[in-house]
Amino acid sequence: MWIRLGFVITITMISIMQPRLVAAAEVYPTQELFSTSTTVVGEPIAYPATGPAKVTTQIVTIAPGAETVPHHHPAPMVAYILDGEVTVDYGPKGKRVFRRGDAFVEAMAVSHKGVNTGTVPVRILAISMGAEGTANAVADR
Predict the structure, then answer these.
(1) Full-model pTM
(2) Between the CA of residue 92 and those of 37, 95, 96, 111, what are the distances in Å?
(3) How many CB atoms lie within 10 A of CB 89?
(4) Alpha helix stretches (DSSP H) within the chain
(5) What pLDDT, on the 0 to 100 scale, is given for residue 5?
(6) Mean pLDDT of successive 10-residue segments in the chain (141 residues)?
(7) pLDDT on residue 53
């Protein structure tokens, strides 16, 4: 009986001491912006394998009436619109309008350009999830 009780206590202690995987919402308040395995134009997300992982965070600002050059992203880039509104032209994939509070994974292989048709600067939090030796954006001139 003592051996069996010792076994039960041991198993109980092991299960109590094991770390438990939990969702972030169980640890601190969260608001999910999105969850996806594809870009905004439906491409599967693929990470570069050119070197060690590298995350780069930038704030992109586009003045009223200004536009970006046509470009693409060799690595996944999450965009979150902090202020303003931007219209992104994806060529044959169409145009999309993103406003303050919108979040998405930007197109990777599809060339695109953003245009600020509003009256205030557009500010975009851009988080690139690339690798050493991989550019965050490449101009398609």
Answers:
(1) 0.81
(2) 21, 9, 12, 10
(3) 16
(4) 2-17, 24-27
(5) 55
(6) 58 61 76 93 94 96 98 97 98 97 97 96 97 94 79
(7) 94
Q: Report in angstroms the alpha-carbon separations of 113 from 17, 72, 88, 95, 137.
A: 52, 9, 6, 10, 11
How is residue 84 written in tokens? 């303003």
Which tokens hold the place of 93?
A: 């994939």
Type of residue found at 96: R
* 72 φ/ψ sector (left φ>0, alpha ψ -120 to 50, else beta): beta
Distance CA 86, CA 115 (A): 6
> What per-residue confidence (pLDDT) applies to 7?
55
108, with CB counted inside 10 A (0-12, 13-18, 19+), is buried
Q: Is 30 helix (H, G, I), strand (E, B) or coil?
A: coil
**DSSP H or E segment with residue 59:** strand 53-62
